[in-house]
Amino acid sequence: MKRVASLYLPDWPIERLAQAERIATPPERTPVDTTPLNAIAAQEQAVACSVPRGGGWRPGARWARTEGADARPRDRRAGRVSEAAPHPFKAMPPDEGRTPVRDPRVTPPSAAPPWKGGAGGGSADGSPSARLRADPPPTPSLPGRGGKAAPPATMPLRHPGPLAGVVPGPTPPLGRQNAVMGGPRHNPRQGAGVTNKAIITSLQSGNALVIAAACPAARALGLVPGMAVTQARALVPGLDIRPADPEGDRAALLRLAMLAARRWCPVVMPSGDDGLFLDISGTAHLFGGEARMAKRIVALLKRHGFTARVAVADTPGAAWALARYAPQICPPGAHPDALAPLPTAALRLEPRARDLLKRLGIETIGQLAAVPRAPLARRFGGTLIARLDQASGRLAEPLDPVTPPEAIAVVQRFAEPIATAEAIAHWLGVLMPRLVTALAEAGLGARLVDLVADRIDGVPQRLRIGLARPTRDGAHLLRLIVRRIEEIAPGYGIDALALHVRRADPLGAEPFAETLEDRAPDLAPLIDTLANRIGISALWRSVPVESDVPERSVAAAPPLDPPPRAAPKSKPDDVRQLDRSRPLHPWDARWPRPVRLLRRPELLDHVLAELPDQPPKRFTWRGMAHRVVRADGPERILGEWWKRGTERHSVRDYFQVEDDAGQRFWLFRRGDGERGETGDLAWFMHGSFG
C-alpha cells in the first residue's frame, strides 16, 4: 500500500534568515580571566582532589569525614573531581527469581522509573500499558556545584512550548503519536544571542509593500502575511523588517528535497513553498517504522534550527492536510475519518472557493463530502471535486520527484596492470573524449577534475586540476593532466584509471566572433597552467573595496571573475547591495598607492623626524638603516569611527619617501603630534613602490 509523508515547514523563510545570520556571525571570544594566580590555585585545590595540598595532611577522603552515606557526592560530571561513582554494570536478576538487591545510595527505590520496576511504578493489573502510562517522579537535584538539577531519564518528545508571551494559533489536540510528529515551537533565533523580537519579511506587491512571512512572535501580535507593512509598523513599533527572498527560499527547499532524496526516500517532491512530499512506501522500515522515521526527520531539522511537522497518510492530499492541521500517523485506510473534522482550507482550495463555502455554511471536509457532487461541480467547477477525490484516494495524484544530480565520472579497467607514463598518457587520451561527451550531455563545464589511479596494492594515487572557467575543451584538460603524470607513483602496477568531475558549472553556447581581431584574448588556459603548477592559492588579482583604511581597501579575488560594482551612495548602508551598473572607483588618482601593500603595517625603529608634520630623516626597517633624501606628504587618513568605536580618534599621517639607494616606501606616523589620544607617534611601514 502506498504511504506518503508530508513535511510542513511553517516558518521556513524566517528560520532560513536566522540560520544565515548564525553562520555569518563569528563566535564570541572567551573573556580573558584576570583572576590572580593564587586565587586560581586555591580554586583548583578546592575541587581537584580530596587530599589537601597544604600542611596538616592526613589520609582519608573528604566524603569519608562526613557523617552518613548520603553525603557522598554523586555528580558524574567529567573533570578532575575525585568522586565515588556507582558500579558500571546493571544489576541482573538472580537465578532464584528474586528481586535483585539495589544499593539505595546509587538508585533509591523512590527515584526508580516505573517502567524499570521500581517502587510505585506498577499498577493494579500490572500490565505493561499501565506502567507506560505512569508518570516518572521528578528527578532530585544533585549536590554538585551550582545546585543544578539532573537531566531527566528520557528527553521530551516535543519542545517545552512556545515563547513566553506568544499565544499559538488554534491547533487540534494531539495524541501521543502527534506529539512525536510535531516540531519545536520556539524561536529559531533563540539561543544564538538574539532577542525574541518580532521579525517579518516584506515583498513588493504592485504599489504596496506587504508582509510575505512572519515569525511566531509577530503572528501572535496580529501580523499575518498579506498585511501592509505600513499597518504592521504602526501596530508594532520597532518591528524588524527584512526583505523577502522567495527565489532563495525555493532554492533552499529544493536543496532540502535533494538531501531527502539521498537520505530518506528516493521519491521526494516540493509541496508548494513550505513543505515536501515523501513517498515512504517500502522505506519506512529502514528507519524503524513510520513513527520513528518521522521523529528522526523532525529531530534532524530541529538541530539545524527549523520547525517541522510531519504527517503520514495513504494519499498526498490527506498527508498535506494532516501535516498542517492535525499532525499524526494516520493508519492505513483511516484517512477519510481523519480528514472529516478538518476545515475546507486543508483541501488546497483557492481563497475565493473557501470564502464561498464558508458563506454556504460548509466549514469542514466532512460536510463538503456529504454535499451532492453535481451542484458543487456546477458552482465551483472541477477543481474542488478533484481536490476532494485526491484527498480521499478516488483520484490518483502522482508525484513528480526531484532527481539528484549524479556525479560525472569515466572509468577504464585493465586486464593487466600498467606502470609506465606512456601507458597512462595513452589511456588518458581514451578517457578524455568520454568525459567531454558526458559533460556535453549534461550541459556542464568542468571546474575541478580528479584523476584516480587504483594500484594493485590498494593505495590509490590522486591528481586534482582546477580550472578558472568551466570548460569542455578535452585537449586543454588532457594537457593539464599529462604534465603532472610524474606525480603518480605506480608501484607494482595500476589496475584502473578514473576521471571524476568534482565541480561543474552550467556551460551553454557561446557567440562566435567573425574575425580573430574581434575576439578578446582568453587568459583562462594560461591561468589554468600557472595555477596547477604553483597552486590556486598563489594566483589572484586585487580588487578595490570601499574603505578609507588602506589595508581594508583592497581584497583578493579569483583571476577571471568579473569585478564587483558599487551601489549608489544614496542608498542607506543597511540596504546597500552589489550593483553592477556602476563601476567601483579605486583610490584617488591624486594620491597614488604603492604596488606592494603589506598585510599588516610593520613597526619601524630608530626613526628621526621633526614634529608635527615633517617626514622622517632616517629609519630602520627589518634590520637595515635607510636615509631619506626625498619625501612627499603628509596624507592624513582618519579611522572608520562608524564601524569601530576604537577608531574614533585614530589618525594616520602617510608619507611617500625615497632613500639614498633609490627605494621608495609608503610609511605613516600614528597620531597627529598634538593630541595624545590620536596615537603614540610610532612609525610604521605599510608598503613599497615599484
Please give a handful of descriptors for the protein shown.
single chain; 690 residues; alpha+beta; 7-stranded antiparallel sheet; 4-stranded antiparallel sheet; 20 strands; 25% helix; flat
Can you describe this structure?
By secondary structure, this protein is α+β, with helices and mostly antiparallel strands. The protein is 25% helix and 21% strand. The chain contains 17 helices and 20 strands. The chain has a seven-stranded antiparallel beta sheet, with no helix packed on it. A four-stranded antiparallel beta sheet has the order 5-6-1-7. A hairpin with a 2-residue loop joins β16 and β17 (624-638). α9 packs across α14 (382-392) and α13 (373-380) crosses α14 (382-392). The longest helix has 22 residues, at 421-442. The relative contact order is 0.07. Mean pLDDT is 76; it is low at 47-85, 87-91, 94-195 and 563-585.
Structural class: alpha+beta
Query: Proportion of β residues?
Result: 15-25%
Ends: how far apart? Answer: 77 Å
Oligomeric status: single chain
**Overall geometry:** flat
- Strand tally, please? 20
The side-by-side strand order for the widest beta sheet comes to: 14-20-19-18-17-16-15
